[in-house]
Specification:
Layout lengths: L7 H14 L4 H8 L3 H8 L7 H10 L14 H7 L1
Helix pairs in contact: 2-3, 2-4
């Protein structure tokens, strides 16, 4: 399933959904990605001060990738409805 994330909060919510769908705890995902559970929690909570390498470690552990493309023309409210 494709998900749109334009903010750290939206990215965190998407990662949380994917982790839960994979039936992983934050600790299990952290171990799989080589990071602390506390870091997973902060990212899922939308805290923006995270190294991009850490985000990519989480994406890899969840078998996800980022696709860069022009923004859709939907309103911010439309995007918030996705989450």
């Amino acid at each position: 399933m494709s998900q749109i994330a334009r903010t750290p909060k939206q990215l965190g919510a998407a990662l949380r959904r994917t982790r839960r769908n994979a039936d992983l705890t934050q600790a299990q995902l952290g171990e799989k990605a080589g990071i602390w559970q506390e870091t997973v929690s902060k990212i899922e909570g939308g805290q923006g001060a995270t190294k991009i390498a850490t985000i990519f470690d989480l994406l890899a552990a969840l078998d996800l990738e980022i696709e860069i493309k022009p923004r859709s023309k939907g309103s911010a409210a439309d995007i918030e409805d996705v989450f």
